Amino acid sequence: MILHESERLDFTRIPSSKGIPKRVYLILVVGLLGIFTMGYLSVTMSGFGHMWPANATVRASDKCASDSSQTCMKKK
Hints:
Layout: H1 22-44, H2 62-66, H3 71-74
C-alpha cells in the first residue's frame, strides 16, 4: 500500500507525556481522606453501644432466667 507523504508516521522521536491529569490527583486525595476518615470513625466509635460485662447483654430478663418453664420462650 502506498501512503501519501502526510500520512506517514514519524518514529524518529519519542512522544512526550502530558503527565497525570489534575482530576486523578483530586480523586486520589479525596479517596485517601475517605479511607482515613472511616478508620478514625471505626476506632473512635468502637466502644459506643457495647456493654461489659457480657452478662449485662443477655436479652432474657431475670424472671425468665430463673423460670424453668417454656413460658418465657413463647413470648416475643
